[in-house]
Write a structure and sequence with these properties.
The complex is a heterodimer. Chain A is mainly alpha-helical. Chain A has helices at about 30-45, 50-80, 90-120, 125-130, 135-165, 175-205, 205-225, 230-235, 240-250, 265-285, and strands spanning about 5-10, 15-20. Chain A has a two-stranded antiparallel sheet. In chain A, a hairpin with a 5-residue loop joins strand 1 and strand 2 (about 15-20). In chain A, helix 3 (about 90-120) packs across helix 9 (about 240-250). The radius of gyration of chain A is 23 Å and the shape is globular. In chain A, about 45% of the residues are buried. Chain B is an alpha/beta fold. Chain B folds into two domains: about 1-210, Rossmann fold (3-Layer(aba) Sandwich), CATH 3.40.50; about 220-285, Alpha-Beta Plaits. Chain B contains twelve helices and 16 strands. In chain B, a hairpin with a 2-residue loop joins strand 9 (about 195-200) and strand 10 (about 205-210). Classes of the chains: A mainly alpha, B alpha/beta. At the A-B interface, strand 2, helix 1, helix 3 and helix 4 of A face helix 2, helix 3, helix 4 and helix 6 of B.
Chain lengths: ~290, ~325
């Protein structure tokens, strides 16, 4: 490390000459090493914004309130008619919490992470620091998807905990079934996060990304299901929102039945994600900022 | 070292930078001068890979920026005062860059102290004044102690203290042997800090020379003489082949002659020899601002310029002003 010397600035403030430690100049830097550093930087970028934690809090609090409301409703039914306890479905209720609330917090999180820098021009700093735009995008996707997974699983655990607390004395809590739903939803939310980081990177606008996400996750499949046309109804299963809930609800969403069950649904979501990221990758590499 | 080789950038039918070839050497402050829309920012952004050239090459230490092993260690850039997210603290902003550059965390504290932001480092940068944000941009640029620095309009919006701080910093960085490219449309600022000038207009290179050469080559130092008998002196000087421009003195003093070539003493002697009454005699010194105005006269985009371009006096504050401004 170089030495330190001090000169007196004209404005009265001392300007200290502090040299940064130098790395091996010209040393070959592997993409893996670059990705590791970019992941650390991206985590600092994401975790240092309040909006990130507002999104995480919204997911957890939203799921908690949803679970409390649904649990209270189910509890009232069971009190009125004890036989109704057979119809209490923890996994289904949890999956609906993800569908109606949590997935939109993930959408907003991904939209803010991917478009915020374009809105306030701080993207110039990010891309000057690391001109390898592929690693910038990969790091952003991994960090956002990882955070979305953790937040979604946490929301699911809290939500099912609330349901269990309200209903456990009347209904056996199906631990394995709920665990599959929570982990499946976490994986699906991670894919959604990656997808909307891609959409946001391509569109570069928060409002347009949120609007596109709302349409893909809820608006479009709902309208298609309501159409009454069998073909259109079946095609709704190929939208990410409908395919997602079919996956993490294990075919028992409670309001919609896709024409097919199983892994095909998560493959559909993954397909949307890959497509969005390919567009984003191409756009980010080719378009000036 | 920065090298632009026939660098061209087109946006549809509009050419922002056209076949710009220039070398920015280390150890001196190179001023990048031009009116708004001249292509200065576009050129700087091409050096760091934010904007892709349509043709030509922008090289940093002989290689395209994205091919450098440690790009952010070799180049520090202050291109946009908004380069830090307003919702992020200065410390977090610099910590993120420290990760990218593989620097230890204490380097962030060092550079925050260097720019005088230690006490506000944990405040979100959106609450900073323009001067503080500019200092954060400088901290960002200096974090990895790079050998090449790009400052795009660094004194825009700064108060006097900020301008002087930036000026001293720029000087010091060049004196340390770094390559320093500073863009500005402020002539007086360039005159204070730059050793070498690259002047562009409408994306084209107009001048690439030491600042003293730019001034002497394009400026019009001349003698101004006011006299009610100016006609006689004009005829005498014309016979000697001296170039003269004529104006009105603006009062009863009669005509004003602008004499190019001879010094004040020679013009005074000629007047004495011709028996011409002299009501005013002065030397109009050339300045960088005048040279700039003449250089870029045809290159101003989306603007109108007060005509005619006249000589400049150097005021007591050192700032160049046009003769009209002084007299008004």
């Amino acid at each position: 490390m170089k030495g330190t010397e001090t000169t007196e600035g004209a404005a009265g403030a001392g300007i200290r000459r502090v040299a940064a430690p130098r790395g091996p100049d010209g040393a070959r830097v592997t993409r893996t090493a670059r990705l590791g550093r970019e992941l650390a930087a991206e985590w600092v970028r994401v975790s240092s914004l309040r909006s990130t934690w507002w999104c995480v809090a919204a997911a957890v609090v939203g799921m908690t309130l949803f679970a409390a409301m649904m649990g209270w409703s189910q509890l009232s039914r069971v009190h009125e008619n004890p036989i109704a306890s057979d119809g209490v479905k923890f996994a289904q209720l949890t999956s609906q919490g993800y569908f109606y609330l949590v997935q939109f917090t993930v959408l907003v999180l991904a939209a803010l992470v991917s478009t915020g820098e374009f809105a306030n021009r701080s993207v110039t700093g990010t891309l000057v620091w690391n001109p390898d735009r592929t690693t910038v995008l990969v790091a952003r996707v991994l960090v956002t998807a990882g955070l979305a997974f953790c937040a979604s699983v946490a929301a699911g655990l809290v939500g099912t905990g609330v349901l269990a607390a309200l209903l456990a004395s009347h209904v056996t809590f199906p631990v394995a079934e709920v665990a599959v739903t929570v982990l499946g939803a976490g994986a699906c939310m991670a894919l959604f996060a990656a997808m909307f980081v891609g959409v946001g990177t391509a569109l570069r606008g928060t409002a347009s990304t949120v609007m596109a996400g709302f349409l893909l996750l809820l608006g479009l499949p709902m309208v298609m299901i309501m159409s009454g046309v069998q073909l259109v109804d079946d095609l709704a299963a190929f939208t990410p929102g409908a395919a997602g809930i079919e996956f993490y609800a294990a075919g028992d969403a409670g309001f919609y039945t896709a024409p097919f069950d199983g892994p095909i649904n998560v493959v559909v979501v993954a397909g949307w994600t890959v497509a969005a990221l390919l567009v984003a990758w191409t756009e980010l590499r080719l378009r000036d900022v | 070292m920065l090298i632009a080789r026939e660098l061209t950038k087109r946006y549809g039918p509009r050419t922002a930078v056209e076949e710009l070839s220039v070398t920015v050497a280390p150890g001196r402050v190179t001023g990048f001068l031009g009116p708004n829309g001249a292509g200065k920012s576009t050129t700087m952004r091409m050096f760091v890979g934010l904007t892709r050239p349509t043709s030509g090459a922008a090289l940093v230490n002989g290689r395209p920026y994205e091919d450098l092993a440690w790009p952010a260690r070799e180049v520090g850039a202050l291109l946009d005062v908004a380069a830090a997210h307003p919702g992020r603290t200065a410390r977090a902003h610099l910590r993120a860059k420290a990760h990218v550059c593989g620097l230890p965390r204490n380097r962030v504290d060092e550079v925050l102290a260097e720019v005088g932001l230690s006490e506000v480092a944990d405040r979100r940068s959106g609450s900073y004044s323009l001067g503080m944000r500019q200092r954060l941009g400088v901290a960002d640029a200096l974090l990895a102690d790079p050998g090449v620095l790009l400052f795009d309009e660094p004194v825009n919006g700064l108060d006097l203290d900020g301008v002087r701080w930036m000026r001293d910093l720029t000087r010091r960085l060049a004196d340390e042997g770094r390559t320093v490219l500073v863009s500005s449309h402020l002539m007086s600022e360039m005159g204070q800090v730059a050793d070498h000038l690259v002047v562009v207009g409408r994306g084209r290179l107009i001048a690439d020379a030491p600042i003293s050469e730019v001034i002497s080559a394009w400026s019009r130092t001349h003698v101004v003489l006011r006299s009610p008998d100016a006609g006689r002196l004009r005829a005498r000087l014309a016979r000697e082949g001296v170039r003269i421009e004529t104006g009105t003195g603006g009062d009863s003093a009669g005509e004003e002659l602008r004499v190019f070539g001879p010094g004040v003493e020679e013009v005074g002697d000629r007047a004495y020899e011709e028996g011409v009454r002299v009501h005013g005699l002065r030397l109009e010194q050339a300045s960088l601002e005048q040279a700039y105005l003449e250089l870029t006269g045809e290159s101003v985009e989306y603007g109108a310029r007060t005509a005619p371009v006249t000589a400049v006096r150097t005021g007591a504050d050192g700032a160049g002003r046009t003769a009209e401004e002084v007299e008004s």
